[in-house]
Amino acid sequence: MEKLTLLLEQHPLWQQAKDWYERLASKDRNALLALTVFITVTLFYLLAWEPLDDWSGRQQEDYSQQLETMNWMQQHLDKARELEKKKKSGAGQKELSSIVTTQARQTGVIISRIQPDQKGVAVWVEDAAYQKLLAWLVILKNRHFVNVQQIKIDRLKEEGRVKGYVHLGTR
After folding, report:
1. pLDDT of the chain along its 171 residues, tens only?
2. Nearest residue to 129 via CA among 87, 97, 103, 164
């Protein structure tokens, strides 16, 4: 710091500025000092404070948004885990057979044969309305997470009636 002060004092422009300042009247010196302070504070505000304040505001908004997202996720985490557990568990072939037959009865689909196997349940339907069969499969998928793994549907002579084979599973 001493070297900088020595270099500054030895520089001819610095000496001229110093001499000019000393020749000013005390009122002018005070006005110049006030102007210098004002310009320094203004530059500090415009170049440092305002950009930092804007950045801080954006960061606070981002944090609030992330906090809201986290709270929403925590509120819905149990439901998501429950749905995933239902989807993955499959609950065994007996329960799957029960779900399939109960939903078939409720939608008016008559199952002629049902056979559990390692991958799910095979179901044969000899005569059903196509719309009821479709509604039954949609209900199984949306409410019980039962997937159609294989399906074969044949049209019967009567309009809108079908027979089919469906293999259902939980994966």
Report:
1. 788 788 778 888 888 888 898 898 999 989 999 999 999 999 999 999 999 999 999 999 999 999 999 999 999 888 888 877 765 554 555 688 888 999 999 999 999 999 988 888 999 999 999 999 999 999 999 888 888 999 999 999 999 899 999 999 876
2. 164
